[in-house]
């Protein structure tokens, strides 16, 4: 991965237009949610009342800064994680969950539509960096989903264990109750003799 080789003119323009680009990007991300959720995410500014909106807003700013510095998966992963951890538990398909990265391309193009040809000629390199971000985002998303499935499997295992304990099939220590153990041995003996 590495740093982008953008000339100072484009870097300066991107820095100057950063607040407007981030606003467009934030609005585009929020619009991927149902209308009533999107309205809340846009209108509620309190980070405690709107932790999802706050995570998106702060995360995209940090991601944008990392893009300008060059995409380093180690550095950008925590910022992606803050957004993707939430999207991993919501009703997004994997492609939908990471698609917010590509919305940055649209936000930049809309904000820079009146630039000269030389500066616009550097956009493919910038967009290549955004593609690298998307690959990092997919890896982070998959890790979040793995963590979620691990939590769900552990909950199911613990719930099953508690049910078996309540039914007096296993002891709280994990072993079988003596009557259950004897019944299992009888069934196995019967299978062997048949």
Structural notes for this entry:
The chain is 75% helix and 0% strand. With 194 residues, the protein is an all-alpha fold. It folds into two domains: 8-145; 155-193, no CATH class. The longest helix has 44 residues, at 123-166. The termini are far apart. The relative contact order is 0.11. The mean pLDDT is 85.
* Radius of gyration over C-alpha positions, nearest whole angstrom: 26 Å
Query: How many β-strands, per DSSP?
Result: 0
SS-based class: mainly alpha
Shape estimate: elongated
**Beta-strand residue percentage:** under 5%
Helix/strand order: HHHHHHHHHH
The helix content, as a percent range, equals: over 70%
The unreliable regions are none
First-residue to last-residue Cα separation: 65 Å
Give the count of helical stretches: 10
Biggest sheet record: none
* Average pLDDT number: 85
Number of domains: 2
Which helices and strands, and how do they pair?
Blueprint: H1 8-16, H2 18-30, H3 35-43, H4 51-69, H5 73-89, H6 94-98, H7 103-111, H8 117-120, H9 123-166, H10 178-193
A few lines on this structure:
The chain is 75% helix and 0% strand.
């Amino acid at each position: 991965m590495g740093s982008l080789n953008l000339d100072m003119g484009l870097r300066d323009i991107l820095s100057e237009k950063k607040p407007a680009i981030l606003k467009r990007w934030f609005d585009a991300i929020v619009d991927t949610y149902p209308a009533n959720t999107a309205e809340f995410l846009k209108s509620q500014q309190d980070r405690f009342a709107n932790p999802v909106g706050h995570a998106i807003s702060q995360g995209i700013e940090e991601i944008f800064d990392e893009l300008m510095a060059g995409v380093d998966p180690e550095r950008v992963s925590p910022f992606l994680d803050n957004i993707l951890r939430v999207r991993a538990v919501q009703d997004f398909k994997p492609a939908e969950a990471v698609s917010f990265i590509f919305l940055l391309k649209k936000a930049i193009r809309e904000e820079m539509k009146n630039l000269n040809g030389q500066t616009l000629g550097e956009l493919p390199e910038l967009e290549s960096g955004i593609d690298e971000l998307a690959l990092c985002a997919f890896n982070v998303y998959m890790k979040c989903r793995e963590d979620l499935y691990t939590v769900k499997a552990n909950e199911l295992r613990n719930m099953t264990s508690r049910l078996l304990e309540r039914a007096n099939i296993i002891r709280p220590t994990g072993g079988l109750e003596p009557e259950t153990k004897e019944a299992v041995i009888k069934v196995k003996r019967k299978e062997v003799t048949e």
